[in-house]
Amino acid sequence: MASSSQASRAVPNLAFRGLRGQRSPGEFAAAVRKAAREIGEQVSCDARYIGRVEAGEIRCPNYAYERVFLHMFPGLTLSDLGFTARERVRGGRVGLPEPAGPFYEFDSTTDSNEESDVLRRAFMTSGSATVAAASFGLGLGSVPGSGPGTVPAQRRVGEAEVSAVEEAVRRIRLLDDRHGADGLYQRAAQPLRAAYALLDAGTTARASTADRLHAGAGELAISVGWLAHDSGRFDDARSHYAEALATARVAGDPALEAHAFCNTSFLARDAGRHREAVRSAQAGLRAARRLGSPRLLSLLTLREAGGWAGLGDRTSCEQSLGRAHAYFDRGAVDADPEWMSFFGEPELEALQAQCWAALGEWPRAARHARRATVLQDGRFARNLALYQAELAANLARAGAPDEAAEAGHQVLDLLTGVQSSRIQLMLSDTARVLLPQRRAGGVAFFLDRYAGAVRRA
Question: Where along the chain do its domains lie?
Answer without folding.
Answer: 1-92, 113-252
